């Protein structure tokens, strides 16, 4: 039940999926809030929290990618049409890329910032900066990049959620429920 | 902020009497001296995890030294610092320091030190203890004072000490930035 098969997701993939999804959406909300809050003290603390969860997210995504490469990917149900069957891998690839690129761009941002504030995830250890040149221009570039990559990524996530709801409520297949539990994978959800 | 350092005077007098300086009578050192930003400096440094740190200075401050020629221990120092004058060379950090995160200059425009006791520690050195008040919080602090000279109605001394930010609700950023602020101050007092 831990590993994927050709028909269902295992617990490892399921837990990683929901954990990453939760952290990713939470990070978007946190990032949006921390730059708009009036209190500079609270803002500073939220930014450090955002950085901590960003590194956590990056670690989880790397584990997820490794797990994905090392195990099976369940096939789509037979009733899924040809267009969606071709689009799904591209969307999933884009989602994986977003999960990777958004935290990496945040890491680049703190690495080039002229403020040179160290990153200390959850106050546990110092995460070294990436070996990029510190400058005001580079900081502005990565602020722009991180922000718009996050917006693009959250748009993909929304698309992903809508697609999952379509499968569940409209097509009534197992695409969503098999990502909830391996035990749901074999249950056909045809019209009642 | 007021620093009641007495020692300065005492040292002066003692040092002079001891013959290491030109013939200056104790009565010459006794008196009231005014400290201004001109010819004086208040610098500070906060260590950063992983090396380096934050260095800055206060551009505006004032104070008085009253040297009791008869009893050095009764000498007094008062110093008032205006945190709105803080400078680090990075305007974004300056704005952060002035905000509610650190000095909260909108609601607390002064940092005050008033000496409560002076204890001589050497030929020309002393420890000055006093009450430091910042952001509405008052705590006892000690500073090491070294008399550096007296000439033409002016006295010069070097003051150093370490203060915990957390005592004044200024501990934002710990443990990334040290809780300890190291002060390095150079004061020139003019009689009058």
Automatic annotation (TrEMBL), chain A:
- Give the residue range of the signal peptide: none
User: Its GO CC terms?
Assistant: plasma membrane
Q: Which residues cross the membrane?
A: 12-32, 90-115, 148-169
Every Cytochrome b561 bacterial/Ni-hydrogenase domain range: 8-181
Principal location class: membrane
GO-annotated molecular function? electron transfer activity; heme binding; metal ion binding
Q: Name one Pfam family in it.
A: Ni_hydr_CYTB
Assigned protein family: Belongs to the cytochrome b561 family.
Mind telling me what this protein is named? Cytochrome b
Automatic annotation (TrEMBL), chain B:
Signal peptide residue numbers = 1-23
The keyword Signal belongs to this UniProt entry's keyword annotation: yes
Q: Name the SUPFAM superfamilies for this protein.
A: YceI-like
Alphabetic keyword roster: Signal
Enumerate the InterPro entries for this protein.
Lipid/polyisoprenoid-bd_YceI, TTHA0802/YceI-like_sf
All copies of domain Lipid/polyisoprenoid-binding YceI-like, residue ranges: 32-190
Question: Is Signal among this UniProt entry's keywords?
Answer: yes
- Pfam families xref list: YceI
Q: Can you tell which superkingdom this protein's organism belongs to? A: Bacteria
- Its name, as the record gives it, is Polyisoprenoid-binding protein
Originating organism: Aminobacter anthyllidis
Give the source lineage, highest ranks first: Bacteria, Pseudomonadati, Pseudomonadota, Alphaproteobacteria, Hyphomicrobiales
């Amino acid at each position: 039940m831990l590993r994927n098969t050709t028909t269902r997701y295992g617990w490892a993939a399921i837990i990683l999926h929901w954990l990453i999804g939760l952290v990713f959406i939470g990070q978007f909300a946190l990032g949006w809030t921390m730059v708009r809050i009036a209190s500079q003290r609270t803002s500073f603390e939220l930014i450090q929290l955002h950085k901590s969860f960003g590194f956590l997210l990056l670690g989880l995504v790397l584990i997820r990618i490794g797990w994905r490469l090392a195990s099976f990917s369940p096939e789509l149900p037979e009733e899924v049409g040809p267009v969606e069957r071709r689009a799904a891998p591209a969307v999933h690839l884009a989602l994986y890329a977003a999960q990777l690129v958004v935290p990496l761009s945040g890491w680049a941002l703190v690495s080039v910032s002229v403020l040179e504030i160290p990153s200390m995830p959850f106050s546990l250890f110092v995460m070294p900066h990436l070996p990029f040149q510190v400058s005001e221009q580079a900081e502005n570039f990565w602020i722009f990049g991180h922000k718009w990559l996050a917006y693009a990524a959250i748009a993909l996530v929304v698309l992903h959620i809508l697609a999952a709801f379509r499968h569940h409520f409209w097509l009534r297949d197992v695409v969503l429920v098999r990502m909830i539990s391996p035990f749901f994978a074999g249950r056909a959800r045809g019209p009642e | 902020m007021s620093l009641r350092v007495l020692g300065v005077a005492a040292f002066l007098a003692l040092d002079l009497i001891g013959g290491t300086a030109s013939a200056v009578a104790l009565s010459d050192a006794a008196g009231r001296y005014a400290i201004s930003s001109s010819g004086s400096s208040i610098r500070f440094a906060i260590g950063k995890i992983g090396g380096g740190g934050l260095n800055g200075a206060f551009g505006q401050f004032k104070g008085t030294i009253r040297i009791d020629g008869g009893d050095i221990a009764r000498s007094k120092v008062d110093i008032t610092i205006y945190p709105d004058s803080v400078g680090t060379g990075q305007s974004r950090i300056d704005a952060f320091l002035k905000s509610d995160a650190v000095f909260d200059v909108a609601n607390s425009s002064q940092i005050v030190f008033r000496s409560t006791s002076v204890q001589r520690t050497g030929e020309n050195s002393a420890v000055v203890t006093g009450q430091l008040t910042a952001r509405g919080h008052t705590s006892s602090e000690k500073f090491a004072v070294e008399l550096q000279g007296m000439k033409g109605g002016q006295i010069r001394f070097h003051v150093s000490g370490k203060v915990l930010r957390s005592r004044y609700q200024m501990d934002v950023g710990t443990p990334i930035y040290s809780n300890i602020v190291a002060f390095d101050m150079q004061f020139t007092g003019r009689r009058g």
